[in-house]
Amino acid sequence: MIAWSTAAPSIGAAFAASLVEVVEAFTIILAVAALRGWKPAVLGTLAALAILAGIILTLGPLLDQVPLNVLQLVIGVLLLLFGIGWLRKASLRAGGVMALHDEDAIFAKETALLSEEAKRKKTSLNWIAGIAAFKAVLLEGLEVVFIVIAVGAGKGLLVPASLGALAACVLVLLVGAVIHRPLSKVPENTLKFGVGVMLSAFGVFWTGEGLGIEWPGHDLALLVFVAVFLATGLLTARFVKTPVEAV
Amino acid sequence: MSILKDVISELFSMFVGDARLSISILILVAIVASLARTLQIPALASGAVLLIGCLAILVESVLREARIKRRA
Questions:
Q1: Chain B within 8 Å of A84 (Cβ-Cβ)?
Q2: What residues have CB less than 8 Å from A145, skipping those under 6 apart?
Q3: Domain boundaries, chain A
Q4: From CA A37, how far away is CA A31, in angstroms rounded?
Q5: Is the model's pLDDT at A230 over the cut of 90?
Q6: What is the pTM of this model?
Q7: Overall average pLDDT of the A165-184 stretch
Q8: Which residue of A lies nearest to B12 if distances are taken between CA atoms?
Q9: SS3 B42
Q10: Partner residue opposite B44 with nearest CB, options A98, A146, A216
Q11: Which residues in A lie closer than 8 A to residue B43 (C-beta atoms)?
């Protein structure tokens, strides 16, 4: 039986990270559906999901063969690269240095791009639309797969983390099916900020464990790392918001 | 081929969005590994170096990017 205190951080991180990725993929799927109907959008999505499922089914058994400390170290380092990268971007966006992600603008741009590409290549628009949905789901889905493996594999929490990701997919699909518009009201940067914080905290935790460091308080150390990364990210974003005049 | 190229480029950008940030993290992990394994420094001290190092890399990277963007 898995304790909630152990599983909750993994489920929460997988859910929030997947929510961001699925919202981004959904915008493209919706652009495809708006242009050519749901058939190419659904076919492209299903094809990408099949490939992602294949990747998971191939990688899953392989992960069991890797020694735990090696797995923790590799995943920890990848999480640090990925998580701190996300937190950096989110801090820059929160500080007004980088533009915020705008799903409405992306939807309009994607629709225009698809129409233009169909004219230029003189190919069936259905085919191009299907490929666009396929690519969006595959590319965003790869990130979801990595995040689920990263937050779940180190402690045998792949199933709970997958359920967190699945819940995010279902939520986006349900809300999307009701409102039929890009989910521009989702506070993407706040979510990305939170996910960057969680992934960075997991990264420090797993890298340390992989190197043989026994963290005081064990899993509770994660909460300390989350608090420290959150405070640092917020303070840095606040600092860059008020640029220092050159002397 | 274009899809494969996009997948590879996506995977690359996932972990190497900013080359300097990524290299700094890898160097930090190598330093912490040598502290923990070779120099036999207490595990907790190595852990503190890892955490503080990551925070320092994050702050430096955000401030550097902000400086560059504001100058442009």
A1: yes
A2: A52, A55, A56, A59
A3: 9-238
A4: 9
A5: yes
A6: 0.81
A7: 80
A8: A82
A9: coil
A10: A216
A11: 212-214
The closest alpha carbon to A152, from A3, A5, A14, belongs to A14
Q: What is the 3-state composition of chain B as percent helix, strand, coil, each rounded to the nearest 5?
A: 85, 0, 15
Let me know how many helices (H) and strands (E) chain B has, helices first. Answer: 3, 0
A247 three-state secondary structure: coil
ipTM of the complex model? 0.90
Angle CA(A100)–CA(A102)–CA(A103) in degrees, nearest 5?
145
| Residue in the block written with tokens 């959904």 | A26
Question: Mutate which of A82, A84, A128, A235 to test chain B, going by most B C-beta atoms within 10 A?
Answer: A84
State residue A156 phi and psi, 5-degree precision.
65, 35
Separation CA A36–CA A86 (nearest Å): 33
| DSSP code string of A209-244 | HHTT---TTGGGHHHHHHHHHHHHHHHHHHHHHSPP
